[in-house]
Amino acid sequence: FPSSCAEVLAQEGEVHVALCNGQGGTPADQPRREWHNSWQIVAVAAGAGFILSDVHPFKAEAVDGYKCTGYRSQDKSFCVEGALNHVFTRSTAPLCLTPMSCETQLGSQKVSFQVPQVLVDKINRGFLEVNSSHPVRTIKEKLSAGLSQAFPLQNISSCLPLLHQGHLDGVCHSSIFWITLSPGEALSTEKISQGLANPVLFSHLGQDTEENVPEGCPIPKQFYLRPSLLPHAQAITKKRAFSPGTLQVLSGPVFRKCRITPHSMPVFHEMLIVLAVRRGTENSCIQMLVGNIKTTLNSLHQGVKPSISLQEATSVGTELNDFAAFERQLGEIQHFLCVGTDSDPSGSCVGVIRTAPDEFQSRELVVVSASLNLDLLAML
């Protein structure tokens, strides 16, 4: 049926499919039937290039001339109570993305590389730039403003390197976007470790640009796009580059190979909050941080406030969303910051809290950090 519609439907036309309650196999069905006992109408329509644009109750009396034919043409009418009308439209054609080159500086060397195809339209969106009005920037600025009322605060996000060299301990290699530098750009470890990155420049390449390395040349898995801002924070604390009691706020896009789900995306904007406190006061500091975050997020919602909770990492089972599971690979976690819903009161992870007692190699100080997924917070 959808394929037949695709042959005759106008470009801006709609296909309306009315089904009994439960037959569609979509979240709109209440209750939902088992997969094999429904039409799975979204998947069927997708095969003909249609997407589900709207679902609303089917009102038989409002359809002029409607007559129920009966179940399998028997003298038994369909039950139209709770029936739904599914509206399908043509999906937009996929974008034809031009290959993109990125030039950045590591230490005293400029390097360039071809951006992975899946990231071409996502790596340079500028959502956190000063002139941006995107919700992730709004969330970041509101959180920073709220935290600055309780702590001295310093933003240090402008010079964070986009690339890393080597391997990230504990992280699965298949979760990383590995990068091959453009020919002639190979660097020595000594030069790379000297400094931080300068502003990044992007440029589009010709359509016929080949991304593949010539046959017979192994790909040296030495460089990768940053999957987290945590290593940058650790480097800063090891250098003792900030004062105890001052909040350091790092933010920027991070890149992780993952399944795309409502709570997992290959690029998201991380906000990392780092604070050195006196040993023994870390728990009260965490409560103050989380309380401040809750207050700020609640102030952004006029209606129903999000249910935000702090959960002990030891009490959370193995059923973690991909964001939380990756964070666990980066290092030990003390708490998960979760947002609950009516259907899932325990909540979905939107942030993690860590303490690093030995980060300073000091008997007096402990490092507390909070990593927040700004994209997930913006979708609350």
From TrEMBL:
Annotated GO MF terms: rRNA (uridine-N3-)-methyltransferase activity
GO cellular component, one term: cytoplasm
Domain spans labelled 25S rRNA (uridine-N(3))-methyltransferase BMT5-like: 3-69
GO BP: rRNA base methylation
Record InterPro entries: BMT5-like
Any one Pfam family match given in the protein's UniProt record, by short name: BMT5-like
Protein name stated in the entry: FDXA1 protein
